[in-house]
Amino acid sequence: MAIVSVSATGMWSSATPWPNGNKPTAADDIYSNGFTVYIDQNVTVNSINSNGGTFRNAGNFTVNANVSAGTTTCLTLTGNGTNTFLISGTNIIGTKSTASIYAINVTGSTSTNFMYLTTIGNVIGSTIASTDTVRIDAGYYNHYGNSTGGGSNNSHAINWFNSSNLPAVIFLSGGTFSAGTGNTASGFYSSMNLAGASLNSSSITVYGTLSGGPSGGGGTPAGINSNSNVPVTVYGNVYGGIGYGFYANSNATHNIIGTVYSGPAGGTGGVGVYNGGATTTINITGDVYAVNTTNTSYGVQNNSNGTINIVGNIYGSPATNAGAAVYSPNNNRITITGNVSAGNVANAYGVYCNNISYLTIYGNVTGGAGSTAYGVYNNSTGYAIISGTAVGGTGSNAHGVYNSTTGTVYVKRARGNAYGPGSTVTNVAYGVNSNLQGSNSIVEELEFGTNGLMPVFGNITLADRSTNAVDFFVAGGSRKTLIDPNSASIMPPVSSVRLGVSYSGDNLVGTCAVPSISSVDFGTLVDNSTGIAALFANDIWNTSNNTLTAASLSGTIGYRLINVSTTESAGQTLAAYTL
To answer: In the prediction, which pLDDT does 553 show?
Structure first.
């Protein structure tokens, strides 16, 4: 291994840049040394480094080397619309000395002149503020490996940035994309706001793990930080760290397919997925967990007026210093298709709504094992609608749903916990608790707990529905269910009720047409009587033969009898016969 300092500007393939004309070998570390080297062939060396000067592409080639920025940008790439360039090494390292320079800089792109760049290896953020390790202005970029933000303010590992409305298609895969230790230092960062065809042709796709990082400063350091209106799709799990796993503050719709976890205690962010955009929508397909967090760290936080849709189950924290799995502090919407469970420690909420929130849950909600570990805590003046059953947990006052404000809560069914005679559950927790005089809590069905505990407590209103039901214990331990007398479950179908008859509180009208007894065969049961219609000999004898035409009788006995000879007709035939 040798250190080779470039001695003149020139093509890599020529002898010009190299001391004594000796081209470097695979074990060498190359320094630009104030000159420019144009890469016009495939290159394999241990590393390329910048200490003044730079390396530039001069065609479609592969560089097998580590890349490290020093006092100048190490590798500068420009494209013509067809150029491809592959960089494969262990590490791509940001500068430790000079601001606003890059290990790799894709620059000078236009709508027709751009790069197809692929990097393989670990991208490591700079320790210098506002300095990216890899910067891309446009084109196609594929990265395979890890990517970690740097140690200073806005020192992103990878940054997509241009001010010319230029599109890009970006794939990040095969590793972990992690926040750095610096303020707002992200594994990947984008602040592009595109329009028209550029927006429609741009996308960011991530196959890997997102992490908020193990330590960090303030601001919004994130594994993926999108301040762009370009949609991001993530296939992988998302972990809040000291920073954010995924941070969005833009007018876009993002999709995450994977499990989301909150961060550890003491985080600046500590949020798995954070939505800070007023018009941002984030769709999550996967479960959401609060883990060992502070009360300001959450699995998912909807912090602005945007929308979050979750298809998966929600789990409160099992450990100390609990925060909610899902937190909504502002005027926004959250929809959950799945079950919600609070955690095992105090205040380990499944979902916590504050300010003005609109929450919809298609599933059941259960309180936790910790004190006041509510399945859903509504501290909002908005709405919370739960289409399933809200069940009290085993912790003290760990209600399934707790409504503490003037907001509206609607719950399909409420059930008390198992507290009661002979139970191992020693704490009282209701399915729904509404303790503020001005709150509006509505329940459709009530179910007493397995040992008789009430399903609700406080200011509760029963929804006026034909589906209303109360399930409770009677003396002797058996259960009994009371249902609304107009419940569809005990009503006959409309096809079994006489035509025009209204029933079930005038909500249903019969459609069964019952014939009169005079139209039903004699002796046949009809309505509450029997038919009286009968056919007698006189009815046949007195039938007018004017109605017996061949067309109406074809194939019948009547049709056969039309042409049968009678005594009269036979005599007339013989009398008319002459020899």
So the answer is: 57
